[in-house]
Amino acid sequence: MESYDYIIVGGGSSGCVLANRLVGAGKSVLLLEAGPRDNTPFIHIPATFVRVLGTKRTWMYRTEPEPGANGRVLTVPQGRTLGGGSSVNAMIYIRGQAQDYDTWRDLGCAGWGYDDVLPVFRRSEDNETFSDAFHGTGGPLKVSEPRYRHPISSAFVRAAQEVGLAHNADFNGAVQAGVGFYQTTTFGARRGSTAATYLKPVRQSKLLTVHVEAAAQGVVLENGAAIGIRYRRAGRIVEARAREEVVLCAGALATPKLLMLSGIGPGEELARLGIPVIRHLPGVGENFQDHITASVYGITDRPISLKGQDKGLRAVANGLQYLFTRSGLLTSNVVETGGFVDTSGQGRPDIQFHVTPALVGDATREAMGGHGVSINPCILRPASRGKVSLRSRAADDPIVFVGNNLTEREDVDTLLRGLKLARKILAAPSMRALGFRGLTPGDGDRSDAELEQHARSFAKTVYHPAGTCKMGTDDMAVVDNRLRVIGVPRLRIADASIMPTLVSGNTNAPCIMIAERCADFLLARNSA
After folding, report:
1. Shortest CA distance to 144 belongs to which of 358, 336, 288?
2. Farthest CA pair distance, the chain
3. What domain range is 62 assigned to?
4. Per-residue pLDDT at 278
5. Predicted confidence band of residue 365 (pLDDT cuts 50, 70, 90)
6. Could you tell me if residue 188 is inside a domain?
7. Which of 53, 320, 345, 466 is the most exposed place for a label (fewest CB within 10 A)?
8. What are phi and psi of 2, to 5 degrees?
9. pLDDT tens, residue by residue, 85-118
10. Which helix H or strand E contains 137, and what residues bound it?
């Protein structure tokens, strides 16, 4: 029987952080990752991450037909390789708003206010530009400025200012609102995933065992407490024991599934599937949230977008430039620019823009032809809530994934405001100077009904699932404020599933912070 101090399930953004901190403290660790190693250049070259989506290094979760999206099925890719989401995302470094964490605190998560988490963000960070009250240097996580600025991206930043938005050089500083270029988790013109920044320094330690292509089947429980993990590797089922604790870092779609397969979750649902109920926790799988967007597409007759840059001689030239000089288009994170806007007048941004200098569909819809731009306003704090549940007691069966996106009127209204603003930016002088005109919803006046139809027809996820094992003190809480699964000793969760409410921005940096705090709790040290 394999035995370790700690077992971490999921070698993604959170799992790699936790492995680093525990091994550094002298603990033996087993890190289980269901996918393969992160040993493809498409992961490490910043601009080629889109080549990884849909491969064996991503899970392609699909919702049930979405009433709020005209009955369409939405696809949510998630990392399935070392580094997880940090190995397949657009590398954008965003923490969210101070109010997000103060909201967690006010919902009963003591010790999770902004003043509590800011020191942890700063400790983890090695920012090449900022070193102040909001930013740190010398931490494992490399945060850098863009090495390449696409002309369309630059035009968007100017156009947004032309319609009245402020420029912001630091979305993680004193003020989030404004537009500009995103800082990214990159260094040396390469992706800085948590596998590259946290896991690699301890990879050769005798205290660390990493098993890839090792799919967790369930938590092993004894007298109601976690004592290990059952997993499948090389065609056989193996059990490993944890002398201290088991930590689930499998993400907001896989972590609740693993709990339910282990008999931890809504009792009636588990009993109906013939799963013995070890701990009735009705909140497992509930409270699902994601950031939803719908693109405003602009088209131009000028051959200036990313279209064709990965084909023929252009691809060869881009590849050679990157190989020999570590410069050029391949150093781009593609989603170079965006920003945060208060469209409701309530005093904090409720829309985030992600801008791509190409006509981009979604994970399953083909991109449109021609040269263009995709301006994507996403809802920062959705009111809609979905649910994750088991399809059967078989670990390999896909989950029942009810997204419920755009089912609350508040979300639709917020997205409509974002679409209207995106259309204004597309029509601003700096975008028109590049020959842009509206493709869809098109130029000219559009009624709210027409824009809503566009929103529901083109709605897609930003791949930020969260909330399905929320932290708190109410009846639907799954973990307490030290990330312990309620009523199940020796079991914790450290991933986006613990978020009571979704943060106002990209989720990778917050997941790293959550893992840092989990390590502090496990090692019984102060988070500061």
Report:
1. 336
2. 69
3. 1-93+193-286+465-528
4. 97
5. low
6. no
7. 345
8. -65, 140
9. 999 999 999 999 999 999 999 999 999 999 999 9
10. none
Query: Could you tell me if 306 and 366 lie in one domain?
Result: yes
Query: Distance (Å, rounded) from C-alpha 403 to C-alpha 121?
Result: 30
Using a cut of 0.70, tell me whether the model's pTM lies above it: yes
Question: Do 222 and 354 share a domain, yes or no?
Answer: no
Strands 337-341 and 178-181: antiparallel
Residue 436 and residue 338 in one domain: yes
Respond yes or no: is residue 464 known to be catalytic. Answer: yes
pLDDT of residue 525: 65
DSSP state, residue 394: -
As given in the structure block, the two tokens for residue 268 are 């009636």
Say how far residue 178 (Cα) sits from the centre of its chain: 21
Identify whether the C-beta of residue 479 lies closer than 8 Å to the C-beta of residue 492.
yes
Which residue among 135, 150, 371, 464 is the active-site one? 464
Mean pLDDT of the chain: 96
Q: Which class for 184: exposed (0-12), middle (13-18), buried (19 or more C-beta within 10 A)? A: buried
Contact 493, 329 (CB under 8 A): no
Q: How confident is the model at residue 363 (pLDDT cuts 50, 70, 90)?
A: low
Instruction: Provide mean pLDDT across the span 334-343.
Output: 98
**In 114-206, which ranges are continuous DSSP H helix?**
114-124, 151-162, 194
Contact 472, 500 (CB under 8 A): yes
Of 221, 156, 206, nearest to 182 (Cα)? 156
451 and 323 assigned to the same domain:
yes
Of 458, 474, 495, which marks where a domain is finished? 458
- CATH code assigned at 249: 3.50.50.60
Alpha helices per DSSP H over 213-372:
255-261, 267-272, 312-325
Q: Where are the beta strands (DSSP E) in 223-314?
A: 225-233, 236-248, 264-265, 279-280, 292-293, 296-300
pLDDT per residue as tens digits for the range 470-490: 999 999 999 999 999 999 999
Are 434 and 154 a contacting pair, CB within 8 Å?
Answer: no
Question: Cβ distance 378 to 463 under 8 Å?
Answer: no
- Do 218 and 162 fall into the same domain? no
- Nearest Cα to Cα of residue 199 among 4, 464, 8, 463: 8
Provide the 10 A C-beta neighbour count for residue 1. 7
Does residue 486 lie in a domain region?
Answer: yes
- The CATH number that applies at residue 297 is 3.30.410.40
Query: Using CB atoms within 10 A of its CB, is residue 301 exposed (0-12), middle (13-18) or buried (19+)?
Result: exposed
282 in Cβ contact with 478 (< 8 Å): no
